[in-house]
Amino acid sequence: MDNNFDIKRLKEYLNFDYGHIQRSRERQCRAWRGEKLDVPLLFIGDKLSPEQERITEYDLQQIFTDKTKMLCREARGACATGNGRSDSVPSIRANLGTGIMLACLGLEQETFPDKMPWLHERLTKAQISKLTPDDIKQRGSFARGMEMMRYFKETIGDSLPIFAMDTQGPFDLAHLMMGDDIFLELYDDPPFIHHLMGICLEIGIRTHRWMKDAIGEPMTAHHHSNSIYSDSFGIRICEDTTALLGNEQIREFAIPYSKRLAREFGNAWVHYCGYNEFLTDAILEQPEFKALNFGHIPGHEHEIDFFANMEKFAKAQKINFNGWPKFPDESAENYIMRMHKYAAQGVLVPWMGISDDLSKAGFKTAADVMAYWKVLSAKSQAA
Questions:
Q1: What is the total count of domains within the chain?
Q2: Fewer beta carbons under 10 A from the terminal one: N or C of the chain?
């Protein structure tokens, strides 16, 4: 890491195979549309080169207000993705935390050097009741994030795609805006919650449009998460707080607004942390949601039934975009074979890292895993 790194030379350090990346985009587009590939998608990164290690890695507090430091930190992650030479497409963003969209209402997050920003400011019920779409403006840290995105575009051109800031879904925004009082209001004052959800939907629509305009991205296509590219859906929607709700609340207060947001951008893929069976089912039922990623809670990784999920996604004809853990007694080869089996069926787009178990079994680099992945694909085609 070089504290005197010259940002003007950043493009020299990327060392990307742009022909490979373009083929990855094309393969991803086919897979997200439901086409079967001879070699199914696999996302895997690799370590940085010694030259790339010279790109300064600033902490999370330093990057919040400095566009150059933000670009350096994001570029390091993109380099790791590009070095994997998998189907993952490198991309970067102004990584400003889950509350960034609410800066458009004047709410600002607290920052920390060792963890992501967090929103502590809240609006009262009385304040929210008076909100109109005219109150949503580019201001504060959101406006600074827009400046960062434009700076990225000016500095590196088309060398690295840029994706949206951390865009939470309407119900996540509502929870961030109001705090835990929202859970009581779901029962005490449903009309108020629908007003709040309408405001949050409008925040989602406006901020996505502003960001896409800033980077010149089509409304119905996008890069995301330093991995994804699609031309059949234009945004990601997060449902982290929605995962805390019951079935009736999910279907009344969250899903209808997320569907409307998705339709504005030619469909969406969805992420939420943890696991909620009701939420998974509700998402898979919606034609506007094309893929789903959910989280594995550390220490509870094997509590989500992999095989039941694969069956569920296959029945719904949807794609699970996930990093699944290796079973405790599963060999590295069998683990990769399990991922490949369902990826080949078009049900799973897996991502993985080089764990100690994989490394001990001889899969020390992304190239080792990709080579075995292609062997499995050849055997599958010959069978």
A1: 1
A2: C
